[in-house]
Amino acid sequence: MRSSARFVASCALIILCKLRLIDGAKEQRQCSEADYYYEYTECDSTGSRWRVAIPQSHGACAGLPEPVRGTECTFSCDAGEFLEMSAQECTQCAAGSYSLGSGIRFDQWDSMPAGFSSLATSLENSPSGEDRLTCNSSSWVPQGNYMESNRDECTVSLIYAVHLKKQGSVSFEYQYPDNNLLFEFFIQNDQCQEMDTSSDAKWLKLTNNGEWAKHTVNLKSGTNILYWRTGGVLMGAKVVKPVLLKNVQIEGVAYTSECFPCKPGTFSHVPGSSTCDPCPRNTYSSHGASSCTPCNTTTHYAAEGSGVCSKRPPCSKKDYFQIHTACDQEGKTQVMYKWIEPKICLEGVPGAEPLPPGGEREPCPPCNPGFYNNDTATCSPCPLGTYSDGMKPCVQCPAGTEPTLGYEYKWWNVLPTNMKTSCFNVGNTKCDSMNGWEVAGDHIQSGAGSSDNDYLILNIHVPGFKLPTSVFGQSGAEFGRITFEFETECKADCELYFMMDVNRKSTTVVESWERTNTRQRFTHIMTKNASVSYTWAFQRTNQPSEVRRHLNDMARIYSITVTNAVDGVSSGCRACALSTQPSGSACVPCPAGHYIDTSTNQCTECPHNTYLVSHATLGPDACKSCGPASKSDKDHSLCYSDCHFTHTDGNVTLTYDFSLLGSVGSLMNGPSFTSKGTKYFHHFNISLCGGKGQLAVCTDNVTDLSIAEKGDGSSAVKTFICQSTIIPANGRGFHTALASQSINLADTFLGASINDTLNGIKARPELYPQTSKKVPDVNFYYRSLESTSSCESGRSAVVTLRCNPEKNSKGELSVPSQCPAGTCDGCTFNFLWESSGACPTCTERDYHQIEGACKGRQQDLLYVWTEPKLCIGGVTLPEKKTLPCEGVEFWVRLGAGLGAFTAVLLISLTCYFWKKNKRLEYKYSRLVMSANKECEMPGADSCAVMEGENEGDMEDEVVYTKPSLLGKLKAIASKKNGESFEHVQLNSSHSKALVWS
Q1: What is the DSSP letter of 571?
Q2: I need a surface site. Which of 178, 327, 589, 608 has the fewest CB within 10 A?
Q3: What is the per-residue pLDDT for 730?
Q4: What is the CB neighbour count within 10 angstroms for residue 257?
């Protein structure tokens, strides 16, 4: 179909006039119908238009038809017809072609169709400013039956512009199995303004591997520019699966002026067809065929919808597979070999390998648990209320017990009735169903497929879950679980996917395993009662392939167990609670938070601050104690922190109240960069305190948005700590920041402690800057029960709360600088939450008293916080107190008086002792003088005036004293000087006395 030239009638007349002038200038031949084509002008305000002839090349001929009035603007043809412009009438398409009437379809992608273009956008710089990733080689690539997007981090748009005469629609089929790519579809007008598109129509939902989904969006009249845009978020070495696009159909064009020929491999055998049918197997057709041509099946073959016949190769081991026959009446089975269908190889030619003979007949494996074999060739499910281990007849559960429901498949003689297997070819249609997964006795394994990049699908559907009677209605987190044991053995880049689809809304990949993996178990817990489909998809290589080269690469599943399935069978019995009525023997449900006492078969409530573990546990062991500083909710379904924490060290007790930190804390760290420079952030939501009603929620705004906005659905994560990947809008061509890949980091609260270890989880204080404050950090410990391929025991998280009075009460979250993603090993996440709200509650120890000056015989007592203040809330500072006091003047006067008294006392004592010293000096001089006189009479050793006698009395007495050492020395000195004696005249009124010395 030629695109509309949009010429107005006046422009057409001017062109005609110019051509006629040229005609007059020189001789030209008359135009034939091959020299021009017809187009309509734009509709005017009256709804009319003109048909004008447009020359194929200007000036090549003369005599173009005159413009004539065209059909009404609302005119259109039916499907299978086209508008014949010469007669302006609708005409049926010939055989071998088709039309949509008022629409166009693109279903052949051998090359980029006319009107389509691919535009790539370069990424922003890497953090070092180097290695800028150019996207010159990134593009949407035609692959025959479909278009394939880029696999790298570039943002690439597939663009098509269409002008609609009336309101219409666009529909297309796509495969979008990998959320490492972002895939959006949006529409712009001719002013490059984005048309109003609901969020769930803009972002495409993920699909199952190998399955095609259809998407339809309404279009407005006028110009519509369609964009299919992809961009990678590659944060690992995993190979990204591209987006595939096919069968683009646009409705709303006014007419089509020609029919489209059928593409090779299809045909339309009658005129007026609106579609072309694919050729049957072993036939082919060329472009625009009205019928298919048979292949020479002796030497050639052709798959359904083939454009050519291919030569049959000699048969090899890649062309047959092994099966186990169904059990016969004798209970025997046999290994048989069958050709892979459709059979494309030749037997009996040089180099061909024959089909191996069947093996010996062997006893059939036992029935799976919950089934029995009543001397028949098949296993039948046990009747309701009975159970079996698969090797014995079904028996009734004893009194006080009830049968467990579920599936337990560990023998694979035949495929269970509730399981399906299929094969999807990446680019086209389903493979033969028998080429999906094959039973092999003690395991089920991946089949051959038609090519190495086919998806081999195994699916089991669970319509819902039914808890045992005694635990029915409880608010536990587990409704059921699926456990499977598997291994993969590959030489190519194979991958095994485990996916689930809840309530048929959106398929998500739960876990995937690349290349060879040893035999191992994987368990996934279902946390809500819903209909769910579990799917295993195995692909030998992610690269396009048309042949089988890696047939020996395969995945094996040895057992699959689903608990509490509503349509399951019983493989055993479990204790239940009995009615308290004397005659009651029926099982009754236990209230929430109650366990079954196996000794009495009665419901018993779990003790205080314990939570009820898995329903498979009976007796008191079903109740586990909550960790330190945690408490259980009223249903005993989980443990949580009530934001209060107490720590005692010696005689000092610190009390914390973390409620000021808020219900949920958020942290966006980064930016981080992928290996090729794409910028992204990690966004964490942390719920520190509270039970189920205050959990953190992470949602994706890319896939499944209609339910993600409500915080529900498979793309929403609701837990204590969750993480989303944020891709900023700048530099990627997207119109808003994108949140995707939400994961659960912590769904169980283990407790809070100042210790660095709890339940095997270790806090790492060395990762954070050290603090000199005396207030200890408080660590909150969490664990996730969901195991991953890299974290077999699940993820864990430690949130360290640090008192920092410089922060506000909400505080600030951070991750270790050595681990910018929050984790250094991918399994343990560490967070530091600094806040004044993390300080302990204030007590009397946190302030002190200051005495003010005494003024006017009054004194103030003030109370101030001890700096730095390392507490919050709690007690308040006491009010200022005023007390009576004596002023400074009184104490000055008192001091002056005491000083004067002391001075007088000291002066008096000084005078007294001075006077006494004079007397003693006088007496001493008298004695010295008396000691120097010669006297014949012996004298007493000493004689002196008694203290207190009058001086007059002293004159009448002679004082005898023993000479001192000093006196003797003086006497000897005197003798040497020629003086033998010194005479001293004593004045006395009495008789003379001689003093001996």
Answers
A1: S
A2: 608
A3: 61
A4: 17
